[in-house]
């Protein structure tokens, strides 16, 4: 029997799994690990959303197959969100599809629009589905930088000039996971011009649309006039409303891409459980003070973490958005590499972080720190890290 499966062969070992296994083993030994390694929100959704889920689940007719592309009310709720938040008009019938989380949406779209051998431009470092969705579909990835500076534009132009076959798709993700970098509308204006000129689809992952700090709301690519000719954008309720396990996200934008995604999904799934979709409507249509509270919670955690880790001897730039800090290894320990450093933090400081190399080779030299524990635990993590750094000869002034 052939066990050499084409798609499985294309998947390398999951680098972060090594640290995850160590964390699980440490916990099994009863050690109290402060887990800043995952991107899993630690707060529940607002009560009215949970109430709606329960209310609809109690109805006898709510348990059949739902609609793969999402119930009409939810697609309308998403269109209303884009209208009020970004001033973008969307047709809920042709320009919106509900996905089982944005991750599923990205993977399904990749399988819908990719032929084996296609070249896809994806950021490095990046959230894994940005590359592996396409690798599973048989494409090759050409990496472009994550940082949106002039080097980024040079890399895009070089990719078009020198890649055969010509790239068909560019993935962008701002606020970025893992680097937390953001862009302004001028970036998207230039990007839409570039993509229209080169006839390249743009897939924008806006999973952290509402986690921005310092009063700078993150823009949508669809705010650019003409963006719908080339772009589709993914958003998610996972982080905005603490609904990560519920698996609800959206794709909106270009009608051709939405149709392709909807078509593939119609063969694969029956849509999210109807009560979940009804509760997602309640989240989007209901009071939005919970979104502001969540933003403020991450904002406070960010400030506590940056301050406490700085005092511990580790200077980390404050992320302007997302729920992560992208932390350069302390210079004195840089040679160790991000994987070994993450292992050492776990073993000697009881703090789990994600090694940057797990997000692509250009993530080496960094670890990703999630703001997914409360302020007290973040301060405790900093105390543990301080002791570890001191044991390595790094003190607060020399880090
Ligand atoms: C950038 C980015 N996109 C997508 C996702 C997946 O989100 P969802 O829960 O909507 O599938 C994540 C989750 O961490 C993410 O960081």
From TrEMBL:
Gene Ontology molecular-function annotations: pyridoxal phosphate binding; transaminase activity
Domain of life, per lineage: Bacteria
CDD domains from the UniProt entry: AAT_like
Cofactor: pyridoxal 5'-phosphate
Transmembrane feature ranges: none
Pfam families, per the entry: Aminotran_1_2
Domain named Aminotransferase class I/classII large: residues: 32-383
UniProt keyword terms in alphabetical order: Aminotransferase, Transferase
InterPro entries per UniProt: Aminotransferase_I/II_large (IPR004839), LL-DAP_aminotransferase (IPR050881), NHTrfase_class1_PyrdxlP-BS (IPR004838), PyrdxlP-dep_Trfase (IPR015424), PyrdxlP-dep_Trfase_major (IPR015421), PyrdxlP-dep_Trfase_small (IPR015422)
EC number of this enzyme: 2.6.1.-
First-level EC class: transferase
Stated family: Belongs to the class-I pyridoxal-phosphate-dependent aminotransferase family.
Alphabetical list of PANTHER family matching this protein: AMINO ACID AMINOTRANSFERASE (PTHR42832), GLUTAMATE-PYRUVATE AMINOTRANSFERASE ALAC (PTHR42832:SF1)
Protein name, entry field: Aminotransferase
Organism name: Aurantiacibacter luteus
């Amino acid at each position: 029997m052939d066990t050499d499966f084409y798609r499985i062969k294309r998947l390398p070992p999951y680098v972060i799994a090594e640290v995850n296994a160590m964390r699980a083993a440490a916990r099994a030994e009863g050690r109290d690990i402060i887990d800043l390694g995952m991107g899993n929100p630690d707060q529940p959704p607002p009560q009215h959303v949970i109430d709606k889920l329960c209310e609809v689940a109690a109805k006898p007719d709510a348990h059949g197959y739902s609609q793969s592309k999402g119930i009409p009310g939810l697609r309308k709720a998403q269109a209303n969100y884009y209208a009020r938040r970004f001033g973008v008009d969307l047709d809920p019938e042709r320009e919106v599809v509900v996905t089982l989380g944005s991750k599923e949406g990205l993977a399904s779209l990749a399988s819908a629009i990719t032929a084996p051998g296609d070249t896809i431009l994806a950021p490095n470092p990046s959230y894994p589905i940005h590359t592996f969705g396409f690798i599973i579909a048989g494409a090759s990835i050409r990496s472009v930088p994550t940082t949106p500076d002039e080097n980024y534009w040079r890399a895009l132009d070089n990719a078009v000039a020198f890649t055969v076959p010509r790239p068909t798709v560019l993935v962008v993700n701002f606020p970025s996971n893992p680097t937390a970098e953001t862009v302004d509308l001028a970036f998207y204006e230039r990007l839409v011009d570039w993509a229209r000129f080169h006839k390249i689809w743009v897939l924008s992952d806006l999973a952290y649309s509402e986690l921005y700090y310092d009063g700078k709301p993150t823009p949508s690519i669809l705010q650019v006039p003409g963006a719908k000719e080339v772009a589709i954008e993914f958003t998610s309720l996972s982080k905005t409303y603490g609904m990560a396990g519920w698996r609800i996200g959206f794709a909106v934008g270009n009608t051709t891409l939405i149709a392709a995604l909807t078509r593939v999904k119609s063969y694969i799934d029956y849509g999210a459980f109807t009560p979940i979709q009804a509760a997602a409507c309640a989240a989007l249509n209901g009071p939005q003070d919970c979104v502001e509270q969540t933003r403020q919670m991450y904002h406070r955690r960010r400030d506590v973490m940056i301050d406490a880790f700085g005092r511990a001897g580790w200077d980390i730039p404050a992320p302007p958005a997302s729920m992560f800090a992208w932390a350069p290894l302390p210079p004195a320990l840089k040679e160790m590499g991000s994987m070994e450093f993450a292992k050492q933090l776990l073993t000697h400081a009881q703090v789990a972080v994600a090694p940057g190399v797990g997000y692509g080779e250009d993530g080496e030299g960094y670890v990703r720190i999630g703001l997914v524990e409360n302020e007290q635990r973040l301060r405790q993590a900093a105390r543990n890290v301080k002791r570890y750094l001191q044991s390595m000869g790094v003190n607060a002034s020399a880090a």
